[in-house]
Amino acid sequence: MPILDGRRKHDIVFTRAGVVVEVLGCFWHRCPRHGTSPRSNADWWQAKLENNVARDKRTAAELRRLGWSLVRVWEHEDPVKAADRVEKALGR
């Protein structure tokens, strides 16, 4: 269910609770622990990945403005801990 525009999609949406969950890939979203930068075509990749991070920031701000809670989970996170954060956001 797209909340913002049709291009940005969210991984899980709890409509009644107003909670959005996004799972971020370490490479694509520049994880501070695991993010890497390709050496080949480095300028293109730097711009691409920086645009992804900027879009992530805009998405978070727009969701907050609309009253949604956002839980972001990195792909390397422990699934149980991630689920606990989602449950907390859901008020459980």
Description:
This protein is α+β, with helices and mostly antiparallel strands. The protein has a single domain, classed as 3-Layer(aba) Sandwich (Endonuclease, Chain A). Helix content is 38%, strand content 16%. The protein is built from two helices and three strands; from the N terminus they run E-E-H-E-H. The radius of gyration is 14 Å and the shape is flat. The protein starts with 11 loop residues before the first strand and ends with a helix. The relative contact order is 0.21. The model has no long low-confidence stretch (mean pLDDT 92).
Topology summary:
Elements: E1 12-14, E2 19-24, H1 42-65, E3 69-74, H2 79-89
Parallel strand pairs: 2-3
Antiparallel strand pairs: 1-2
Q: Tell me the major beta sheet.
A: 3 strands, mixed
Return residue spans where pLDDT drops below 50 for at least 5 consecutive residues.
none
What do we call the CATH homologous superfamily?
VSR Endonuclease
Distance between the termini: 23 Å
Can you give keywords for this protein?
single chain; 92 residues; alpha+beta; Endonuclease, Chain A; 2 helices
Task: Put the structure in a nutshell.
With 92 residues, the protein is α+β, with helices and mostly antiparallel strands. It has a single domain (12-89), classed as VSR Endonuclease (Endonuclease, Chain A, 3-Layer(aba) Sandwich). The protein has helices at 42-65, 79-89, and strands at 12-14, 19-24, 69-74.
